[in-house]
Design the sequence.
């Protein structure tokens, strides 16, 4: 089998899992093989265990569906930022069976771990362009995204509730003369495993 064919098969397997995730939280490897049109042995040859396959699937969601949403953020008024946030929540919501099974917190953490540096870059661009407050840190983006995923994928989160909450959150991160944010403690940074270069020095009082 050529390298190109091998890569194509790996992508078919991941694509099959993503399609199945939209219907079921835990499809079997046999179901994934059937959906991909490949044999079970081929699936295991590319992904020896389920954890590796799920990591590849989460990465595909981030690369193909999440990152393009955030890349679309340019110099824009708050209303457009709300649209970007709404698209993010809608994208995550497509995998609601998985969300319900593994728990929104675990799903959010997987997403955020895969995003990593794109979150930092998005924050820097937003601050440079003046539509994100300058005292936001990468850890703030982690918590904001986590809150959005946890709160707005609830069965009770109607379209109007989602819109209201998004307006509230987006307004809070814009530089509209709000009071300064309380700083993170060293312990907070340690607990969140924040890299040293992403930690803001504490102001002496």
Sequence:
């Amino acid at each position: 089998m050529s390298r190109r064919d091998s890569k194509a098969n790996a992508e078919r397997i991941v694509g099959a899992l993503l399609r199945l995730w939209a219907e079921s939280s835990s499809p079997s490897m046999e179901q994934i093989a059937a959906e991909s049109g490949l044999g079970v042995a081929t699936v295991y040859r590319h992904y020896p265990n389920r954890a590796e396959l799920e990591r590849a699937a989460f990465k595909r969601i981030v690369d193909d569906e999440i990152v393009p949403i955030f890349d679309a953020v340019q110099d824009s008024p708050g209303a457009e930022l709300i649209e970007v946030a709404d698209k993010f929540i809608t994208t995550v919501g497509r995998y609601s069976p998985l969300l319900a099974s593994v728990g929104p917190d675990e799903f959010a953490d997987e997403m955020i771990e895969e995003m990593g540096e794109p979150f930092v870059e998005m924050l820097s661009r937003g601050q440079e362009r003046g539509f994100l407050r300058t005292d936001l840190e990468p850890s703030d983006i982690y918590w904001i995204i986590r809150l959005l995923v946890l709160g707005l994928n609830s069965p009770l989160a109607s379209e109007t509730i989602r819109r209201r909450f998004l307006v509230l959150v987006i307004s809070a991160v814009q530089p509209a003369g709000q009071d300064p944010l309380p700083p993170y403690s060293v312990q907070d940074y340690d607990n969140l495993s924040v890299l040293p270069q992403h930690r803001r020095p504490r102001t002496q009082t």
Q: What stands out?
A: The chain has a mean pLDDT of 79. The chain is about 65% helix and 0% strand. The longest helix spans residues 50-71.
